[in-house]
Design a protein that fits this description.
Bound molecules: adenosine-5'-triphosphate, magnesium ion
Number of strands: 8
Order of helices and strands: EHEHEEHHHEHHEHEHEH
Strand content: 5-15%
Number of helices: 10
CATH topology of one domain: Rossmann fold
CATH architecture of one domain: 3-Layer(aba) Sandwich
Structural class: alpha/beta
Strand order of the largest sheet: 3-4-2-5-1-6-7-8
CATH superfamily of one domain: P-loop containing nucleotide triphosphate hydrolases
Length: 302
């Protein structure tokens, strides 16, 4: 599996799972990159070291690199690069004046910043410098928007292409022939990016999504909804991580928690029995830093 994405409800342990899994592959000699697409980055806290917007080697671990994607910045750079092409489409296909085009250009395109996050990932995969790419996503809603972004942009491209088509028809009628310009090239290349992302996400031999949950009713409900959306997107799910599982019988509180979790663990087994279920015990303290992650990775990567 080249690309592994972790996702789930807020606070269930997605970043911890992504970091531990990255560490597992790195320890096994695979060149691994952990990519955080959550705008509220916490990969640096998890690894307990600086992570930035450029790929940085994780200190003290051979074969491990990390990156926090800044989708907003990537989108700004993208818009700057293709400003002429986009404005040209609006200019040739509408009756808007320069000021209106300027205002329209500034309007956010739904899904575009998420798509840019994805573009960063796919560009990195195509540069082929790593064996494994592990993605730490933001809580469910945001992750679903990320997965939905290729479809949203596809709709946007269709509208833009339709505008071009009308313009092309006019030019052909009056000038006899139409030569594609850089705006057409831009739409084509964006379409190709969308296709590349879609086919990677749907390729179960290359890409896997691992939902992370905890034995609590609301988390289970959210996992069910997430699984449904992943099925709708045709994204492969083969395993599930159940985090914060109470193992200790050492005190009355622990026994109480453990007993309370029993019913929800049973529910998880019943609902998600077709998946491989990885149980991660609740640790005594937060899982932060390489040593802690090294201890936890055995439960996720079995
Ligand atoms: N098994 C565990 N035992 C004890 N602490 C844990 C365990 N797993 C995660 N934690 C701690 O719980 C907190 C939340 O974990 P983490 O940041 O991985 O969750 P998340 O799902 O990525 O959260 P967010 O939705 O905010 O991104 C962190 O402080 C982490 O160290
Ligand atoms: Mg996180």
């Amino acid at each position: 599996m080249k690309l592994t994405l972790f996702g789930g409800k807020g606070g269930v342990g997605k970043t911890t799972c992504a970091s531990s899994t990255g560490l597992h592959f790195a320890r096994a000699g695979k060149k691994t990159l952990i990519i955080c697409t959550d705008p509220a980055h916490s990969l640096a806290d998890s690894l307990d070291q600086v992570v930035g917007e450029a790929v940085l080697q994780v200190k003290g671990v051979a074969n491990l690199w990390a990156l926090e994607v800044n989708a907003e910045k990537t989108l700004d750079a993208f818009k700057l690069e293709y400003e002429d092409e986009i404005k040209n489409i609006m200019d040739t296909a509408t009756h808007l004046d320069k000021d209106d085009i300027e205002s329209m250009f500034k309007l956010p395109v739904p899904g575009m910043d998420e798509l840019m996050g994805f573009k960063t990932i796919i560009d990195l995969i195509e540069q082929a410098q790593f064996d494994k790419y592990i993605v730490d996503t933001a809580p469910t809603g945001h992750a679903l928007r990320l997965l939905n972004s290729p479809y949203l942009i596809d709709d946007w491209i269709k509208v833009m292409a339709k505008m071009r088509w009308k313009y092309r028809f006019l030019v052909k009628t009056f000038a006899g022939k139409y030569v594609p310009d850089k705006s057409d090239d831009f739409l084509m290349s964006l379409k190709k990016t969308v296709k590349r992302i879609e086919s990677l996400l749907r390729d179960s031999s290359q890409c896997e999504f691992i939902p992370v949950t905890i034995p609590e009713p609301m988390a289970i409900l959210e996992t069910e909804r997430l699984m449904q959306s992943l099925a709708d997107f045709n994204i492969s799910v083969q395993q599930l991580v159940v985090n914060n599982v109470m193992e200790s019988d050492g005190c009355a509180f622990c026994r109480e928690r453990k007993q309370g979790q029993k019913k929800y663990l049973q529910e998880i087994r019943e609902k998600f029995g077709h998946l491989k279920i990885n149980l991660v015990p609740l640790q005594e303290k937060p899982v932060m830093g390489i040593a802690e992650l090294d201890r936890v990775k055995q439960y996720i990567c079995v």
